[in-house]
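dumping this here so i dont lose it
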């Protein structure tokens, strides 16, 4: 009877591992079923060998504040593992990163011997839903790294980036003056989202 129960449990967990992050995270968070499903997956991952660990720290932003440099510096440390894929954004599906929970877990394969495991996704900082998802998936002891920058310099840097990528046609001053209108323009917001997806996709 115990073996049958164990096989049934393993089969259920394997099924849950194949579910997309969207399916897991977009369900009703007040539902015990949804939360228990995710906990089963996380519990299973945590009992696997140390070659398959999940992150114990996250770099969450802010954008254009040095996160890529920090990510690159930490990758050089022999005891810290960060995947080559920057901005997997599993906890903020709208950012256009990795959508499959199983694909996210594969980023952290073969991490045996590392003392710290992390990833960097700046979309988490501004996401209203990411904090709860992170706690559910990675636990309350997860370390969060946030880099802040003078907002004027950050805005100018972001504007320059968008100009270089071909998404911004206005001057910096004109873009600032037009920001209130843009934020209430559904077409602009939608295009901005697609631009972010393309930016993240370039990794």
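and the seq i came up w/
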């Amino acid at each position: 009877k115990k073996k049958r129960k164990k096989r049934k449990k393993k089969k259920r967990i394997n099924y849950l591992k194949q579910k997309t992050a969207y399916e897991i995270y977009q369900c009703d968070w007040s539902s015990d079923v949804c939360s228990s499903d995710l906990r089963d997956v996380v519990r299973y991952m945590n009992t696997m060998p140390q070659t398959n660990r999940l992150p114990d720290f996250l770099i969450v932003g802010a954008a254009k504040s040095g996160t890529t440099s920090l990510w690159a510096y930490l990758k050089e440390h022999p005891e810290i593992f960060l995947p080559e894929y920057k901005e997997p954004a599993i906890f903020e599906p709208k950012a256009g990163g990795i959508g499959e929970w199983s694909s996210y877990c594969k980023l952290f394969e073969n991490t045996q011997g590392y003392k710290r495991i992390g990833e960097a996704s700046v979309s988490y900082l501004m996401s209203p839903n990411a904090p709860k998802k992170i706690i559910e998936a990675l636990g309350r002891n997860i370390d969060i790294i946030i880099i802040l920058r003078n907002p004027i310099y950050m805005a100018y840097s972001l504007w320059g980036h968008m100009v270089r990528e071909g998404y911004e046609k206005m001057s910096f001053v004109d873009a600032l003056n037009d920001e209130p209108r843009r934020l209430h323009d559904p077409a602009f917001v939608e295009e901005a989202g697609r631009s972010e997806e393309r930016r993240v996709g370039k990794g």
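Confidence is low (pLDDT under 50) at residues 19-34.
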